[in-house]
Amino acid sequence: MNQDHFGKLREQMLLDIVAHMHLAGGQIGKPALDARVMQAMAKVPRHEFVPAELQFFAYSDTPLPIGYEKTISQPFIVALMTDLLQLEKTHSVLEIGTGLGYQAAVLGELADKVYSIEFIEELAAKAAYRLNRLGYLHIQTTIGDGYRGWSEHAPFDRIIVTASPQLIPPPLLMQLKRGGRMVIPTGLPESQKLVLACKAADGSISTEEILPVRFSELEGDEAAKPC
Fold this sequence. Notes:
This protein is α/β, with parallel strands linked by helices and 227 residues long. The chain has helices at residues 3-28, 35-43, 75-85, 102-108, 121-133, 170-175; strands at residues 64-67, 70-72, 92-96, 113-118, 139-143, 156-161, 176-186, 193-199, 205-212.
C-alpha cells in the first residue's frame, strides 16, 4: 500500500473523528475539536505505529491490538484526550503508557517537551525506534512504572494517562504543575470514565468526568492494589 493511499485513508479518519465529535459533542460540552489537534492527527502516520499486518486498518476509527494484550487507542479518543489537555508549544508533557508511540507522536506535534513511560520493555523499545525513525527526537521515552510518574523531569504542565488505574495516582497529582491539566481514565474495568483533573493555583484538585471509556488497566506495583 503506497503513501497516497494511506493519505486518503487518513483523510477519511479525520472525517470519522469529526462525525464522532458531532455525535458526542453535547456530552463533552463542545461541538468540535481544536483545529491544531486535527492538524496533528492529519500529520502523524498512524500506520507507522501499528503492527505491519494491521496497517490496512490503521485509519479505522477503532482501537487495534499491538501485542502484549495492549491496544493502540481509537483515533477519536486520541484526538479528544489531546484536545482536553489544551497544549501549548512551551508545555512539558508526561505520557503514561507509550504503547507503540502514536499518542506520543501526536503530543510531539503540539509540544516541544514530551516524556513517555512504558511498563512493557518490548513495547518501549519498539516505540523508541518508531519515534526516532520518524524524527520525533524531542520525545524522550523510558521503561518504568507509570503509576510513579517521572520525577526527574517533574513538574509537568500536562499529564496524559493511556491506561486506567482505579483511582488517580497521587504521585502524578504531585508531579502536575499548579495550573496544570491531567487527562486520565479511571475506575473499575467495567465502569471506567475519562476524567479531566485540573490543579488550581493554590494546589487544590478539581475533576470532571467526560464520558465512559474502556482502557487496559494501568500496570505497576501500586496500580495493582485494590481500592
